[in-house]
Design goal:
globular, four-stranded antiparallel sheet, 132 residues, single chain
């Protein structure tokens, strides 16, 4: 059973930073063989893709939604099957539950976007609240 466990969320003032972590388990292959993504769901809104990264074997290119460009950075951890999301210059509109996920589909992460439907398994998420 594929599982994702997100952590690192919390309460931060506007302009602050948070580093989210995600640990995957139950995957058939090492996480390096999967495209990975971070998603978020704000209160009253649908879940949206924030950033994704091609599988390492496909080059590891990234895609960021416009609101995340220059502020968020996705990385694969040195520890096996871990993913991080560094979030800087946080804004109140970044408040949401953040999720990570992975897909072996070549259509999950591409140069112009993220196809959320290609990501099948979801964790419980971690709450990020940005407020003064």
């Amino acid at each position: 059973q594929v599982q994702f466990v997100e952590s690192g969320g919390g309460y931060v003032q506007p302009g602050g930073s948070l580093s989210l972590s995600c640990e995957a388990s139950g995957l058939t292959l090492d996480l390096d063989y999967y495209a990975i993504g971070w998603f978020r769901q704000a209160p009253g809104k649908e879940r949206e893709g924030v950033v994704c990264m091609y599988s390492r074997v496909s080059g590891g290119a990234t895609y960021y939604v416009d609101s995340a460009k220059g502020r968020f950075t996705i990385t694969r951890g040195n520890a096996k099957n871990t993913v991080y999301l560094q979030m800087n210059s946080l804004k109140p509109e970044d408040t949401a539950v953040y999720y990570c996920a992975a897909t072996d589909s070549r259509y999950g992460c591409y140069s112009h976007g993220i196809s959320q439907s290609e990501f099948a398994s979801w964790g419980q998420g971690t709450q990020v609240t940005v407020s003064s």
